What we know:
Layout lengths: L12 H5 L15 H6 L4 H24 L9 H23 L1 H7 L10 H9 L6 H31 L1 E2 L2 E2 L14 H35 L1
Antiparallel strand pairs: 1-2
Amino acid sequence: xxxxxxxxxxxxxxxxxxxxxxxxxxxxxxxxxxxxxxxxxxxxxxxxxxxxxxxxxxxxxxxxxxxxxxxxxxxxxxxxxxxxxxxxxxxxxxxxxxxxxxxxxxxxxxxxxxxxxxxxxxxxxxxxxxxxxxxxxxxxxxxxxxxxxxxxxxxxxxxxxxxxxxxxxxxxxxxxxxxxxxxxxxxxxxxxxxxxxxxxxxxxxxxxxxxxxxxxxxx
Length: 219
């Protein structure tokens, strides 16, 4: 029996986990790289940007799913952008009210969440075709995957570039920070390292699964 491609995806662990590993926004799909490179000079900035993006992802995905049968196809992209921009504005004001220093550190990249390909892509490719619960779980998984990727970069860059982690000193006074890691080139170096490691692990796991299949067939 041929599966209808328009049918909603069944809810399961895959719905949540695909954004963390199989379809990680940064390490697999290479989306949203501007904030990944720009705000990950500290772990705190990385965590804040990840949580802000996750909030917008979840809220916009749920609302798009709720309105998927109401929004006309001809204006769906414009409608999605308006929905996303609404939650980005809420996030922008919330960060500004919570911590002005954090708001200044993140700069314009909070507002640029509106044009983040991850969010618009999830709204168009997933939330508009699935139920509210599925859209919420999938968006949460994508947000966790994006936050995880940001933290991977932020932790390495802050530890090596400043000798701290979440502003807590890790090493003694003799430690000489590698200043390049908190500068823009450091973002490219660390991202390349994580991309290589992530790709190596994925290929190794795929190879192990192939070997297991070959052994099972032989048996």
